[in-house]
Design goal:
heterodimer, A: 298 residues, mainly alpha, MetI-like fold, two-stranded antiparallel sheet, 13 helices, 1% strand, B: 288 residues, alpha/beta, D-Maltodextrin-Binding Protein, domain 2, 11 strands, 35% helix, globular
């Protein structure tokens, strides 16, 4: 009997271990595949042409800078919009809202997370783009700004649910101690609860950034996809073309192994590296913060 | 390690003529390509399946280039294209051991459209070219209001995009290397272009005549030879070749068609299918 239980345990252990390792394997395989298909672009296309500012691949213009900066611009803008709303909502849900309201709002936020981005894209085309064009008096509403607003909608639910979980893990005694010392509720949230949940909140923000960077469909529908280099402050109110939209709209037509194909995979490598950097930064910052808090507590 | 080897093996081999295995069992047809032709191909497939309940025809879009690429890689039986197959694509097909066959199945016009509030009603080919090359940037230079011009185009995988590049931006000149202005908005669908033109008085766009709705304004176009003779696109001006921006629509098969593919293509060239094309705003090929 005992031997059989041990055997079961071994089997289950093995299965879990394999599924754990397989995720590493998949990431390595994806990276290997990206590198194999994309790296030849570096040798086949002169670097000066690859890192130039004109993207028109069917005529041999392979400048990827407008695409990189286009993605960065809308990711940055959407994060700036999503950050206060996302964290604000999380704080409200976890610290301020009465329990019945929280039970109502939390599922609604989760439903928002489940809306397919293509649906948001439709709303963007039909409602936001015309609205922003008239309100801001710009030539067209299909701009980086419209994309950033949609991306904020997409990343806010992620930020809210992760940040709220982080706030909930802060021990109740922290808040009670702070209130007992005479701090107001606002002071408690700002100076005690939020700093204590810093790691989790930061993870939430980074997940939101990753979501924005990788989003394709909604962005493709509302940003106009013109490969313009965003050089000025008002570039936010001009069309841009992102890396994801470029890969999505052009991958279907390219002949496998052609220069254009290699450049699209090279863009994929760039995207991969960017999200890697985001993730590594997030985990570095959070481990550092944890070490510090452990030092303080001991 | 084994999995890794298998995976990379699959990727490297996916383009070596899977068509040879599929050929005899053609009771269903995969039909893919030009977005301009999707509605037409769908209407044809529906009607054909009503008459022949045994036949299964599935139609999808994605762009002319996408359709031809899928044809060569063996995933579709018939590719729709609003442009001719290019030398490179032909070479790729020949290299894979195929001999693509071309069928002209209808004619189409590319209409230039603006918002109904726009005062400009006519443009010469030269003006149109300069607009899209980024040399004319304000409607006031063309007799319109003082508004910045917003140029709309389809994505580069669209046959319409390539047709427009060659016939308008480069004005049909072989040695002309002009390209679209970088500020041209590349929209993923015909509907996207119509929606933006309908809403935005700054916009100019182009689309297949079959897709034009009555809430956008058609622009008359004149040729280089007769710059003052502006002609609006219509079935009549397309069929008598007075409208400049008209083109053939194609279907391609990998080899000489046989079985269901052949009977389907024969039916498409026949009067019933061509009448359907006419109703959808395309020019039938029978009258030529």
């Amino acid at each position: 009997m005992k031997a059989r239980e041990e055997k079961d345990g071994l089997v289950i252990n093995g299965v879990i271990r394999i599924s754990g390792y397989s995720s590493i394997l998949f990431v390595v395989l994806i990276l290997f595949f990206l590198l194999r298909e994309g790296l030849p672009a570096l040798t086949n296309i002169p670097l000066r042409s690859l890192f130039s500012i004109r993207w028109y691949p069917i005529e041999g213009y392979y400048g990827i800078l407008p695409l990189i900066f286009g993605s960065l611009l809308i990711t940055l803008a959407s994060t700036l919009i999503a950050l206060p709303f996302g964290i604000g909502t999380a704080v409200y849900l976890s610290e301020v809202a009465p329990p019945w309201l929280r039970d109502l709002l939390k599922p609604i936020v989760e439903i928002l997370a489940g809306i397919p981005s293509v649906v948001l894209g439709f709303i963007g085309i039909l409602v936001f783009a015309p609205l922003f064009r008239k309100m801001l008096n710009i030539p067209t509403g299909l701009t980086a700004f419209t994309g950033a607003i949609l991306l904020a909608f997409i990343s806010i639910p992620t930020i809210v649910s992760v940040a709220e979980d982080a706030l909930n893990t802060v021990p109740h005694s922290y808040r009670q101690a702070s209130l007992a010392l005479g701090a107001t509720q606002w002071q408690t949230i700002w100076d005690v609860t939020l700093p204590a949940a810093k790691t989790g909140v930061l993870t939430a923000v980074m997940l939101g950034v990753g979501r924005s960077l990788g989003e394709t469909m909604a962005v493709m529908m509302v940003t106009g996809n013109a490969p313009l280099m965003p050089l000025h402050l008002n570039s936010l109110f001009r069309p841009v073309r992102t890396m994801t939209a470029t890969i999505a709209s052009e991958m279907g037509e390219v002949a496998s192994g052609s220069l254009h194909y290699q450049v699209l995979f090279f863009i994929g490598i760039t995207l991969f590296l960017l999200s890697l950097v985001i993730n590594i930064t997030a985990s570095l910052v959070s481990t550092k913060a944890r070490q510090r808090s452990e030092r303080l507590l001991s | 390690m084994l999995i890794l080897f298998l995976l990379t093996g699959c990727v490297g081999r996916s383009h070596t003529r899977p068509g040879t295995l599929l050929q005899p069992a053609a009771v269903s047809i995969e039909n893919k390509g030009s977005d301009t032709m999707v509605n037409l191909a769908l209407a044809w497939a529906e009607r054909y399946q009503q008459v022949n309940p045994n036949a299964r025809i599935s139609v999808s879009g994605g762009g002319s280039g996408t359709g031809i690429t899928s044809l060569i890689s063996g995933t579709v039986d018939i590719a729709n294209a609003s442009r001719r197959i290019t030398e490179e694509e032909l070479a790729a097909a020949r290299q894979a051991g195929f001999d693509p066959q071309e069928f002209i199945i209808a004619r189409d016009a590319i209409a230039i459209i603006v918002n109904p509030r726009n005062l400009v009603s006519n443009l010469t080919l030269q003006q149109l070219s300069r607009i899209y090359r980024g040399e004319i940037n304000n409607w006031s230079e063309l007799g319109g209001e003082d508004r910045e011009i917003v140029r709309l185009s389809r994505e580069t995988n669209s046959g319409s995009h390539l047709f427009f590049l060659e016939s308008v931006v480069r004005m049909g000149e072989m040695d002309n290397n002009a390209i679209f202005s970088a500020s041209t908005l590349l929209l993923p669908s015909s509907e996207g272009i119509i929606a933006e033109v309908r809403d935005n008085p700054n916009a100019i766009g182009y689309d297949s005549l079959g897709y034009i709705t009555s809430d956008v304004k058609l622009v008359g176009i004149s040729s280089l030879e007769e710059p003052m003779n502006f002609i609006l696109p219509s079935l009549e001006t397309v069929s008598n070749h007075t409208y400049l921006l008209s083109r053939n629509l194609y279907m391609y098969t990998l080899d000489e068609p046989e079985g269901l593919v052949k009977t389907y293509l024969d039916w498409i060239m026949g009067p019933e299918a061509q009448e359907i094309a006419h109703k959808l705003g395309f020019m039938p090929v029978l009258n030529e």
